[in-house]
């Protein structure tokens, strides 16, 4: 019986870990970083090329409140700012997947927790 309760609790926690809000994700990244998120730093990170050809803005737009377009494939990308696309940053697994892929494309590495928190702070400030 004890094992069943433990399995049920773990399953519930796993489902809860998948659902999130942008603010909750930002808070988690901020806690991991150990310093407050800064929207201005997030905007600078988002629009900079970091020595490579692309920036985040290359596909999502300098102000990601409308649709973007993938720089290589031309595929339309929905608005990134949560106020303009309520589905953004609501699934932790998807957020991690896309941060991992996009950070690799833009900065050739995984983004730090501070970078993620900063970008989320800026995206949430767009209304």
TrEMBL record:
Residues 1-19 form the signal peptide. Residues 37-127 form the Cytochrome c domain. This is DUF1924 domain-containing protein. The keyword Signal applies. It comes from the Bacteria. The lineage of its organism: Bacteria, Pseudomonadati, Pseudomonadota, Betaproteobacteria, Burkholderiales. InterPro entries: Cyt_c-like_dom, Cyt_c-like_dom_sf, DUF1924_SHP. Keywords: Heme, Iron, Metal-binding, Signal. Coiled coil: none annotated.
């Amino acid at each position: 019986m004890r094992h069943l309760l433990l399995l049920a609790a773990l399953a519930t926690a796993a489902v809860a870990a998948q659902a999130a809000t942008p603010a909750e994700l930002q808070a988690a990244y901020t806690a991991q970083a150990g310093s407050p998120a800064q929207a201005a730093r997030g905007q600078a990170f988002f629009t900079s090329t970091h020595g490579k050809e692309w920036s985040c803005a290359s596909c999502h737009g300098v102000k990601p409140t409308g649709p973007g377009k993938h720089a290589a494939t031309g595929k339309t990308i929905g608005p990134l700012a949560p106020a303009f696309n309520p589905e953004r940053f609501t699934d932790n697994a998807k957020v991690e997947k896309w941060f991992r892929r996009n950070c690799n494309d833009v900065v050739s590495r995984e983004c730090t927790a501070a970078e993620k928190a900063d970008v989320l702070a800026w995206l949430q400030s767009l209304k």
